[in-house]
Amino acid sequence: MNKKVCFLVTEHPFLDARIFKKEARSLTKQGYEVTMIVPRKNGYLFDIDGRVFRNTFQSQSFNYEGIHIITYEQIQPEKKIKSLLYNLRTGNSKRFNDPLTQIGIAQQADIYHAHEFYSLYSGVGIKRDLTANGQRCKLIYDSHELEPDPLVAQPRNLLNNKQQMLELMLQDVDFVLTVSKSIQSWYLDIDASLPVEVIYNSPPLAPSFQSIQETKPHLLIAYEGVISNQRGNFHKFLEIMELCNQWFDLRAKVIGGWKDTSQEPSLPPSLKGKVEFTGWVDYDSIPSLMRDVDIGWVDLDAEHSLNNRFAMPNKFFSYLNNSVPVLTNQCTDMEKFIESYKCGHTVKKRQTTADDYAQALFFLHSHRDKLLEMSRQARTIMESQFSWRHMEHRLSKVYERLAQDL
User: Fold this and answer.
1) Model pTM?
2) Strand-by-strand arrangement of the 67-73 sheet
3) Residues 353 and 398 in one domain
4) From CA 384, how far away is CA 386, in angstroms rounded?
5) Is residue 208 part of a domain?
6) Residue 230: is its pLDDT beyond 70?
7) Helical H runs in 135-207?
8) Count of structural domains within the chain
9) Same-domain check for residues 279 and 248
């Protein structure tokens, strides 16, 4: 009999790369029956760029690519965090009345897989209810980020309450998945007995192709992902472009962009024709857009966020997957990875200025042999160790281990 898996989601879009395109697809391929319970906003599911699906995915539940999707109206649990903490302390599920918990209980799944801090809360309620009624199930916490982040500016009471919640919730968790070794160590510091596996945000291996870096005079830098007030400092990106173009021909490609197009700034006249915007594209078409890219940019504020310091974001592995070396600032796990595998360049500052990046890009432009070797290394390590094929194997082993205990 196939094991039934239920993904619990409170914030992510249902087509999220890690949740749907990698993990859910992989588990379905391995023979698991996968259901995802996902949020709507004002009645609509939403895409990875934040735009809502007004003409598709209108049913409250449906099947998509062999995966059963059940929807509910998104809630804001952080507004009643004291109540959530109290509910956890009771040790039972009687006060877990949120829709995600109730829908999850109805699925009677074997393995529940929570993808955020608050979906883990619902996962605990589900497990407690099923256990009280004599049904065995397992609970996975897929910690995409470090939460709560002690360096992020927030009220002290909120941080303390969330930390207490996490410690209580982990008592009901059977396995933790996360995205970097530092976050793995952070969980083990909380509870050394926790089974924790790192599953990097790696994509499926891109089709092989040859670098064209030696055949062109200009340098092409890419930014992949969301640009907003909180993510992807586009004003810094433009400043880097302007500084570099005083010294050499730097061009840019933005793969993704703004969730809110009203925030999109206009390019200065000096950069007209220098920046290409692809817009949001299908996940599987990213490799074709990376073919002419020389270096990929990741810039995170590692001074005021422990999560950023430990991050290994999707775009980091997307660049490497396509033989594109990474340029980033001093974030612990990315820096260690780059130093270990010689696949990019780190600016040694937790908060990095446009001038810092411009100096680094000028160096890389002037040392194309180094850049070409980084490109080869990027492809080699993804093939040998870090593509989704390798991460899928790790995921499979976790599920096999849990399924054996049911």
Assistant:
1) 0.94
2) 61-64, 67-73, 33-40, 4-8, 111-114, 138-143, 175-178, 196-198
3) no
4) 7
5) no
6) no
7) 156-170, 181-190
8) 2
9) yes
